[in-house]
Description:
The chain is α+β, with helices and mostly antiparallel strands and about 350 residues long. The chain is about 40% helix and about 20% strand.
Amino acid sequence: MEIEATALAFINAIKKLNNISEIDLEKSKFLGKSGILTKEFKKLSVLDGENKISEGKRLNAIKNQVEDAINNQIKIAKQLALNKKLKEENVDITLPVNKEFGSLHILSYEIRRIKEEYKAHGFLILDGPEVETEFFNFDALNIPKYHPARQSQDTFYIKDFQDTLLRTQTSCVQIRAMQKNALPLSMISIGKVYRNDQLDATHSPMFHQIEGLVVDNKPINIGNLKDALSKFVAFVFDVDSVSLRFRPSFFPFTEPSMEVDCCYSRENGNIKINKDGNSWLELGGAGMVHPNVFKYCGIDTEPYGFAFGFGLERLVMLKYGINDIRSLYDTDMRILKHYSSIASN
Length: 345
Ligand code: DAH
């Protein structure tokens, strides 16, 4: 019975210790290689049969009790140490702060810059929902039911919600704008659009578009569109003037429709927007608003209008000399900081 008494004394002694290394030291005296209890276990080898079994059980019960007491005391000691640390460690609010501030992402920077400029010129700055209906994204834009652009390879449809999709273009904001606002109307909308494209250096399933629309009851012609686009492109690239080229194209919601190119030159491998350059960059689409679109918007006067739609990422990549669209969405702070420092200078 002697070992039980020793164990009890040991447990009582352990309960008085609040320091983990002291507890560990005591533990090794009892349970270590040549500890008191370990020696008792060694004596089992000379016993046989029933005796060996009952003695083994007795020692194991003692071992469990001792181990429980040790583990419990370690927990208490840890908590006490933590409490002490918390009490001692005051936060010194007078220490100098980390003065490194974040900056706007260049896409956000350019979005704000364009919005501010066009707001100052009396344009409405509008947003539309990214989850759209087929009516706004296609029907009202005069895109026929079986047009390939409606097929699922281009459009993300929302499962279980009929006629609902992630908008593939910001042109749907034109419809919402004309339904809500009286003429004359000038608006800019910049937002995200989604297409079922693989992510690579020049494509992303999500990107931004800039949509412009000007409608009036007074005549507006292609000359006005050319003028507006020249000013827009010059503003975006921060140059005095640009030379644009218009190529006939097709969009269901404009007639006539065109593709807009901008004159540039290459200097030291970089693209430079240059009126007297010798090459052309494709920027986006534009045209005179199709009469059917006015009808869908319930405008029954005789309106005139033009519209344009450009990809924001493309403009920003050209402006900053970025050749992989993915670097606009990656979280590599070195790249993001580099471009935002160019933007803010
Ligand atoms: N929505 C067209 C697209 O995503 C771009 C576009 C072309 C917008 C002509 C327009 C426009 O407003 O007039 O490809």
